[in-house]
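We were asked to recover a plausible sequence for a given structure. The inputs and outputs are reproduced exactly as logged, with field labels preserved.

PROBLEM: sequence recovery
POSITIONS: 292
GIVEN STRUCTURE:
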């Protein structure tokens, strides 16, 4: 009888587990990376979560043309391309745009061309906290066509925001520097950027927008995660010249992609990218851009 009680207790202990058991940090990190805002706690919840994601993806696939849900990926992916377009053409160290909200989105197939998205969105200029409702079109080339997405946007009022005074002060400061500036990790691992480095980080986002616009497709959703390092180079024809190494985050694949950029900037000319190079995943294979 005593033996049978011991066996039963052993089985119960195996089922319930120890109250002092701990989760490995890497396992916890894996769960948080998968979905940092909603962590399933049981196998059943995990299965249900996966089913919801599959249902959402299937719904998005059905909604690939016609009226789109503004909060779903197809509409958001198209809207973020407009953000890259505005920043690459009109951004500066003191002027930066982001998508505030997608109000309406409609997609149509254009024969022998690709897929066109018609969007009503709100764009925010971050530095001045000004928001304007805009209409825009994004045409993604089809598989048979090559090239980047083509954008047309009507955001006249927000583009009138004047950052000339701040941009000129930034330009004069770095044009007349006795020592060329270098920096790294903007932001750092705690998300911090010192105020004096913030315009250089913003300039990195503006220059990276050229890459993100060029690389964007219906299957990507890019933002710039970090300036890994930057180096100011000697001025070129009254243009400030920089070499940046940036980390881009594709929120669809969750991939972090390393790029190096060589570009010039001035208040009059804006950003002019001279070279851009995607780095291999092998860090030992990285080589610097030719900055001559």
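RECOVERED SEQUENCE:
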């Amino acid at each position: 009888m005593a033996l049978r009680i011991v066996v039963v207790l052993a089985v119960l202990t195996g089922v319930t587990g120890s109250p002092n058991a701990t989760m490995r940090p890497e396992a916890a990190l894996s769960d948080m990376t998968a979905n940092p805002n909603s962590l399933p706690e049981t196998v059943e919840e995990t299965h249900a979560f996966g089913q919801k994601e599959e249902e959402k993806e299937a719904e998005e696939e059905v909604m690939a043309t016609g009226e789109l849900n503004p909060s779903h990926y197809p509409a958001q992916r198209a809207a973020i391309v407009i953000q890259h377009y505005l920043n690459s053409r009109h951004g500066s160290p003191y002027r930066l745009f982001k998508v505030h909200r997608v109000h309406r989105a409609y997609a149509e197939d254009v024969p022998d061309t690709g897929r066109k998205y018609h969007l009503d969105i709100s764009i925010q200029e971050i530095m001045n906290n000004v928001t304007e409702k805009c209409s825009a079109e994004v045409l993604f080339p089809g598989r048979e066509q090559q090239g980047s997405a083509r954008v047309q946007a009507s955001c006249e009022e927000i583009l009138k925001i004047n950052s000339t005074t701040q941009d000129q002060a930034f330009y004069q400061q770095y044009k007349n520097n006795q020592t060329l500036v270098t920096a790294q990790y903007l932001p750092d691992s705690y998300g911090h950027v010192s105020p004096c480095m913030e315009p250089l980080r913003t300039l990195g986002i503006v220059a990276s927008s050229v890459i993100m616009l060029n690389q964007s497709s219906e299957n990507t959703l890019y933002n710039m995660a970090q300036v890994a390092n930057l180096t100011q180079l000697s001025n070129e024809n009254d243009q400030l010249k920089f070499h940046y190494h940036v980390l881009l985050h594709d929120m669809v694949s969750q991939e972090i992609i390393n790029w190096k950029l060589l570009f010039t900037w001035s208040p009059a000319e804006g950003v002019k990218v001279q070279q851009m190079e995607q780095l291999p995943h092998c860090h030992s294979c990285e080589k610097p851009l030719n900055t001559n």
